[in-house]
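Anyone up for a design puzzle?
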C-alpha cells in the first residue's frame, strides 16, 4: 500500500481535552492501561521513573529505576516488562524487584531503547535510537519473546517509535520520528515474524513528527504529532481523517483506557520546551484525556 498524501484538509476533531493528572513529567511516555488494576502506568524517561495512577481511587505512585525508562508493558503474570536504557527487564512494582532479561545493543553505547509495546499475543517489541544530539540511523527494532530470546526485526532507524497492531493482529505499525514516516508490516502472530516493510503515511510538517501511537477498534491509527501539538487519526488506508489540537505543544503518546477502553490518555513532555511556552502551558508534562467516541483495540500482556 502506498503512503497516503491525502487528508491535508482533514477536519479538526472537537473533542474536549482535559488535564487528567498534572504530573509535569520531564519526558512522559508509554502510557498503558491495566484493566486488572483500573490504573494507568506510564514512564518518565529522563527521570527514570515508572508511575501508576488509579483515577477512581485517586492514588498516584512512582518508582525510581537505575536507568532511563524508555517504555513498558503489562505482564500476564503481573508486573511489568521494561525497556530501560540498559536493556530489557522485568519489574514488580509492589515488591520493588527488578530482574534483567537481555541487552540487545551493548556494543552501541550511544544508543538507548525507546518506544515499546506488547503485541496482541504476548511478545514485547521495542526499538532503539541514537541518543546523541546529531542523530544517525543506528537504531533497530527488537522482538523480546516470552522465553527471553531476542531478535532484531528492523534496522537503519534514527528514532524508533509508534508501535501498534491492527485489531486483528495481522499488521504491525511502526514509525521513525526523525524520518517523518510511518510504515506497516505483515505480522504473523503464530511465530512473531515481521514481513516486508511498506509505506503507510508520509508525514507533512504541519502534522508533526510521528511519536507514540495507539490503535482503535475501527482500525484507525492515532499518532501524536509531537512537534505540532496535535493528535492525528489515520484510517486503515493511511489517510488523515481528523486531528485533535492538544493544549500542550509536545504530546508524546496516546493509549486507550478506562471502562470499555473508551478514554484516550495522552502523555506529554516539558524537556526542551522554552520557558515562555511553559509559562503559557504550565501543565506540559501532564496526562491529558479525551473521549474520542470510539473504543481502543486491546493491548496484549507479555507472556514472559
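Challenge accepted. My sequence:
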Amino acid at each position: 500500500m502506498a503512503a497516503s498524501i491525502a487528508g491535508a484538509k482533514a477536519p479538526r476533531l472537537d473533542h474536549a481535552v482535559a488535564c487528567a493528572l498534572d504530573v509535569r513529567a520531564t519526558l512522559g511516555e508509554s502510557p498503558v492501561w491495566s484493566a486488572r488494576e483500573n490504573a494507568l502506568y506510564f514512564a518518565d524517561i529522563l527521570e527514570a521513573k515508572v508511575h501508576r495512577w488509579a483515577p477512581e481511587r485517586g492514588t498516584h505512585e512512582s518508582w525510581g529505576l537505575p536507568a532511563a525508562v524508555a517504555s513498558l508493558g503489562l505482564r500476564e503474570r503481573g508486573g511489568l516488562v521494561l525497556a530501560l536504557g540498559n536493556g530489557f527487564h522485568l519489574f514488580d512494582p509492589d515488591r520493588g524487584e527488578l530482574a534483567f532479561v537481555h541487552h540487545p545493543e551493548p556494543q552501541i553505547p550511544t544508543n538507548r531503547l525507546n518506544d515499546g509495546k506488547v503485541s496482541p499475543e504476548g511478545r514485547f517489541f521495542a526499538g532503539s535510537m541514537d541518543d546523541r544530539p546529531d542523530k544517525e540511523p543506528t537504531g533497530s527494532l527488537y522482538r523480546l519473546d516470552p522465553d527471553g530470546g531476542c531478535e532484531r526485526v528492523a534496522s537503519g532507524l534514527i528514532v524508533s517509535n509508534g508501535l501498534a497492531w491492527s485489531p486483528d493482529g495481522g499488521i504491525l505499525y511502526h514509525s521513525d520520528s526523525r524520518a517523518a514516516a510511518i510504515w506497516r508490516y505483515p505480522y504473523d502472530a503464530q511465530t512473531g515474524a515481521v514481513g516486508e516493510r511498506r509505506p503507510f503515511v508520509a508525514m507533512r510538517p504541519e502534522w508533526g513528527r510521528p511519536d507514540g501511537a495507539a490503535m482503535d477498534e475501527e482500525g484507525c491509527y492515532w499518532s501524536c504529532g509531537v512537534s505540532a501539538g496535535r493528535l492525528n487519526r489515520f484510517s486503515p488506508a493511511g489517510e488523515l481523517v481528523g486531528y485533535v489540537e492538544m493544549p500542550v505543544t509536545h504530546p508524546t503518546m496516546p493509549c486507550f483506557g478506562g471502562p470499555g477502553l473508551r478514554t484516550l490518555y495522552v502523555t506529554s513532555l516539558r524537556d526542551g520546551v522554552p520557558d515562555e511556552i511553559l509559562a503559557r502551558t504550565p501543565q506540559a508534562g501532564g496526562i491529558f484525556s479525551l473521549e474520542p467516541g470510539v473504543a481502543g483495540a486491546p493491548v496484549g500482556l507479555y507472556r514472559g
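A detail worth pointing out: Residues 158 and 280 are 31 Å apart (CA to CA).
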